[in-house]
């Protein structure tokens, strides 16, 4: 009987504690859209990406032309000349793929640039959310941008503007 009272007390305490917790949400997409340095970083990244893409497209067009020339001239070439031309094309294809990896790969130039420009902004946002969470005694703060499905959200629990204010930006 005593165990039943203790277990009931623990369950009741756990239930009260669960209901006493505060929850809120932020929209990091909205927050980022309202930070001018993020917009500038995105524009810089888009410009760099476009530049890389143009270079790769130019190289790809050159490769295609080399291949078309080879196909049209292969009838006239000796076996040795064919092999040499094929080797040149294969080497050029390898250079193209390597350049593609260098620019757009997992550890490529664009990834590193994005990390350098955007990560400090994201860290500031995270720190501001953490401070607001501590100050407001929130148990959980959800991010409704990209992936978390919130069917209904009451705007009074949206802390996005508070995060912007904490970062020194006004909407």
Automatic annotation (TrEMBL):
Q: A Gene Ontology biological process annotation? A: protein stabilization
Arranged from A to Z, the UniProt key words for this protein are: Coiled coil, Signal
Coiled coil, from the record: 38-102
- A GO term for molecular function: unfolded protein binding
Q: Carries keyword Signal?
A: yes
InterPro entries, from UniProt?
Chaperone_Skp, Skp_dom_sf
What superkingdom heads the lineage?
Bacteria
Q: Which SUPFAM superfamilies match?
A: OmpH-like
- GO cellular component terms, semicolon-separated: cytosol
Q: Does the keyword Transferase apply?
A: no
PANTHER family, per database record: CHAPERONE PROTEIN SKP
The family classification in the record reads:
Belongs to the Skp family.
What's the name of the protein? Outer membrane protein H
